[in-house]
Amino acid sequence: MAKRIEWIDIAKGIAILAVVVGHTLGPYNGQFFGSLIFAFHMPIFFMLSGYLYHPRPPIQECRRGAVNLLLPYLATAVLVLVVSAVARWLPHNPVLLAYFPSWQTGLLAAVYGAGSPVFNPWHWQVQPIGAVWFLLSMFIAIQLFIAIQLFNGWMALTARYAQRSRQDLARGVIVIALAISGGVLGQIAYLPWAFNAALLAQVFLYAGYLVRQTNLLQRMPAPWYLLLTFMWLLSAFQGYFALTVPVSPNLLISVMGGVAGSLCVIRFSEWLSQHATRSVVRGLKRYGQLSLVVLCFHLIDLDVIGLAGWVNSFVLPHGGALIATVATIGYRIAFVTLAMWAIPHLPVLRACFLPRQYSFKRLRRGKKQYVQLSKPRDDKVN
């Protein structure tokens, strides 16, 4: 396994904690702080994927995406469906929520993979499954990005005097065209698997790719980050950026703010990796390394666990809206932290949610070894 880059894990840790906080703002949802979070917390994951992109055969990349993204999505959907069914059978329990009113509704939601209410000219009624839309959209986005790279490579082979600058220009034109189509579709219909978002996310993937190709992080002077911070703040001030649709008051400003905010968080993560105390670095790294577990179990908590509402209603009369919101955020972080601790110790679940470290092949191999070790020896006594 390749050595992990410390600041990337830190950046992922900051971003996934921002996801949890952004979904738990309660009465402060839609205000400036929430817009500041939503301006970068999903774009940065696409940018980091573009930064880490390495050319692989398309079939191999598709298989990797299926294992690393689709398998955790499927496992999360199954858990939400099962817990919803249990909650329907126990209608008066205070802990479990029947997020889906029926198996049919839940299955349709899982297949469609929407992150927010579905709209389309055909008036299909599909309940959104929630935050794990990102896994499906990332899978589609990566396949599209690979297709762009392959097309560009084919053009380079067929062009007699192909230059790298021309290749980059052609790639940029394709990325912009796909992003525009994603924005236009976001005004017409919410397509399955957040396909609209996958189109727009080509900008973030390509931006991350260029950052690495041009060594921008090392070359960019510090004063430029003041401009990037201004663009990030401008994006937050102009309104909420829902990448899952995608929609915002001004998509161009939101995309620019997404790139700018992501670069600011990346630079801050680099600084933390060099100057912060090791306990802070280790903590953020752990959240980043297990960001997939955090996302999936945060969705489970949002959809089918009712404890957040209980915490909020208990604290609200005593501490007011702000303290209740902070307490609820603390609970949600504690919930995903518990999942982070537990999942690596649960063989089947860890193979679903941490497939890079724990595959089903290793699980089967471990069972075979256990059976062989546990067989009684039948050595003859002479």
Report what the structure shows.
- This protein has 382 residues and is mainly alpha-helical.
- It is 70% helix and 0% strand.
- The radius of gyration is 23 Å and the shape is globular.
- The N and C termini lie far apart (49 Å).
Short note summarizing the structure:
The chain is an all-alpha fold and 382 residues long.
Structural class: mainly alpha
In whole angstroms, the N-to-C terminal distance is 49 Å
Poorly predicted runs of 5 or more residues:
367-382
Query: How are helices and strands ordered from N to C?
Result: HHHHHHHHHHHHHHHHH
Q: What is the share of helical residues?
A: over 70%
Number of helices: 17
Strand residue content: under 5%
Average pLDDT, rounded to a whole number, is 90
Shape: globular
Q: What oligomeric state do these chains adopt?
A: single chain
- Tell how many strands the DSSP assignment holds: 0
The major β-sheet equals: none
